[in-house]
Design a protein that fits this description.
The complex is a heterodimer of chains A (297) and B (224). Chain A has ten helices and four strands; from the N terminus they run αααβαβαβαβαααα. With 297 residues, chain A is of the alpha+beta class. Chain B is globular. In chain B, the strands form two sheets. Chain B has a six-stranded mixed beta sheet, with helices on both faces. In chain B, strands 2-1-4-5 form a four-stranded antiparallel beta sheet, covered by helices on one side. In chain B, 35% of the residues lie in helices and 26% in strands. With 224 residues, chain B is an alpha/beta fold. The chains are: A alpha+beta (297), B alpha/beta (224). Chains A and B meet through helix 2, helix 8 and helix 9 of A and helix 2 and helix 3 of B.
Chain lengths: 297, 224
């Protein structure tokens, strides 16, 4: 407790006991800033990937497409039969036969705008929305096979699942990156603390001579590192937030990196990150310095 | 106050052995002996910087071998130490260096500032309070070290060759301060090989002389 008090309460003297080394000051400050920047970006990536996975998972999970691809002469009859089957199926909230113009729009990216679609043996597409209870997929497929043999039910599972998996992988990689950055921060603080104590052996000797406890000596070093890391990470988090703020929003889907901007409560991480830096550097530097001081007799 | 029973210290090879001595409150001791005889080691054991390899060393009634690291730190607040090389924090000014023991023991800073001014006056360094240690002369450094050693009003003052780097006039000035402290009831132990210093002191105070030779300590004769 005494050590935490020494660190958090303003004490001009504790700050002065250990001489300031410009190199370690700048190293700690700017490394913390860079690491905080990376963490905020990794967090933004993870959140965006999570949102994407949720979106793909939710919005497409309750929809399906029925494709009727009969010969042109029989296409209308089979489409009518398919619509009839769907109207008699429990668990379907709505279904709708796509208009010719809508189908034209679907193939436009591949074949251009002037394809004479009506002259081609194009299948008819029926969009299906299921209700909250859902429908019996196996049963519907069996009925369609019996009554509309040319109909194929596509519930999007085949291509939706890999996309959701990919989004979750990105989410996981984001957190893994954060874990690695934290590991680097901890390693760096351990090394910086060790270097600072080693280069200040005379200071430690004098402090011990006048009756300073190991806790006091450790606090003098830890306080410096913890605050440098905190202010450095504050700068890094601020820089990352500015960069994220300038990125296009999710609404603008035509731009790369759209949707990476933080949303709602996610902005609170900009405070959580510097505070975490303070706690991590405080604990690391304290454990390292007390361990080194114990070894210095 | 400081008692040794069959105390020995070894740096691999035995340096001191069979030390049996009792240093009482208010006494004035000189510790003599050739270079490398173990004077500094003796003093370091007294303030807990070194722990005897055998025997029992009691400081203020506590066995130094059984003290925790924190207890050793608290012990050092009761013992003022003056080194030949003074050992200052070169980035702090004289006043801050002298106040260092108070700061590390978290005492009230307001009353201490008054003590600090008086102390700077007493050692004749009021005009040098803002100077950095490297800017001080040898004598000024020793007086600053003495001021730092006594700011916590310790019961014992241990001085290791305090006049080693200063001229005779400065040595006398420093010694007068130590004698004055002894008259206030402080126990003084000075390690030195300067016999003139001992002779000078004996004119003002009842000082005993301990000599380290052949790894052990003996009370020297009155011929000094």
């Amino acid at each position: 407790m005494a050590s935490i008090k020494n660190i958090l309460l303003p004490d001009r003297y504790v700050n002065q006991v250990v001489p300031t080394n410009v190199f370690t000051t700048l190293l700690t400050f700017f490394t913390s800033a860079a690491m905080a920047f990376l963490i905020v970006f990794s967090l933004a990536m993870s959140f965006a990937a999570n949102r994407l996975a949720q979106s793909w998972s939710d919005s497409l999970a309750n929809s399906a497409t029925l494709r009727v691809s009969a010969p042109l002469a029989d296409l209308e009859r089979q489409t009518e039969a398919a619509l009839n089957v769907l109207s008699n199926t429990n668990g379907i909230e709505s279904f709708r036969l796509l208009k010719v113009e809508e189908q034209q729009a679907l193939i436009e990216p591949w074949f251009g705008p002037k394809v004479p679609i009506t002259n081609l043996p194009m299948p008819r597409l029926i969009s299906i929305e299921e209700d909250e209870n859902g429908y019996d997929r196996v049963g519907l497929r069996l009925r369609l096979a019996a009554e509309v043999p040319s109909a194929v039910l596509d519930d999007h599972t085949r291509w939706r699942e890999p996309l959701v998996k990919a989004a979750y992988r990105i989410w996981f990689l984001g957190w893994l990156s954060i874990g690695l950055v934290i590991f680097i921060v901890i390693s760096m603080m351990g090394l910086v603390t060790r270097a600072a104590l080693s280069s200040n052996k005379k200071v430690i000797e004098v402090l011990r001579l006048v009756g300073a406890t190991d806790q006091y000596i450790a606090a003098a070093f830890v306080r410096k590192f913890a605050f440098r890391a905190f202010f450095g990470s504050l700068l890094g988090a601020f820089g990352a937030s500015m960069t994220l703020f300038l990125l296009p929003s999710e609404a603008d889907q035509t731009v790369i990196l759209a949707g990476l901007r933080l949303e709602g409560f996610e902005w609170s991480w900009l405070i959580v990150v510097p505070l975490s830096f303070f706690i991590f550097t405080f604990l690391t530097a304290r454990i390292a310095s007390l361990s080194i001081l114990r070894s210095l007799t | 106050m400081i008692e040794m029973e069959s105390v020995a210290y070894s740096y691999g090879e035995e340096l001191l052995s069979e030390l049996n001595i009792s240093i009482s409150q208010g006494a004035f001791y000189f510790l003599t002996g050739p270079s490398g005889s173990g004077k500094t080691t003796f003093l370091k054991m007294c303030y807990g910087s070194l722990i005897p390899t055998s025997g029992i060393l009691s400081v203020f009634g506590k066995n130094s071998s059984r003290l925790s690291r924190d207890e050793i730190a608290y012990l050092r607040r009761k013992i003022g130490v003056v080194h030949q090389d003074c050992q200052f924090l070169d980035h702090l000014n004289v006043a801050d260096n002298i106040a260092l023991p108070i700061r590390v023991s978290a005492r009230n800073s307001l009353s201490d500032s008054v003590n600090l001014k008086e102390l700077l006056n007493w050692v004749g360094l009021s005009h040098r309070s803002k100077a950095l240690p490297p800017e001080l002369s040898g004598g000024e450094r020793q007086r600053a070290a003495l001021a730092r050693a006594i700011i916590m009003s310790p019961d014992v003052i241990l001085a290791d060759e305090p006049t080693g780097n200063i001229d005779w006039e400065m040595s006398q000035r420093l010694l007068r301060l130590l004698i004055e402290l002894n008259h206030m009831g402080k126990t003084i132990v000075i390690a030195t090989h300067d016999l003139n210093l001992i002779r000078f002191t004996k004119t003002s105070v009842q000082a005993r002389v301990l000599r380290i030779s052949n790894k052990t300590i003996q009370l020297a004769g009155s011929d000094l």
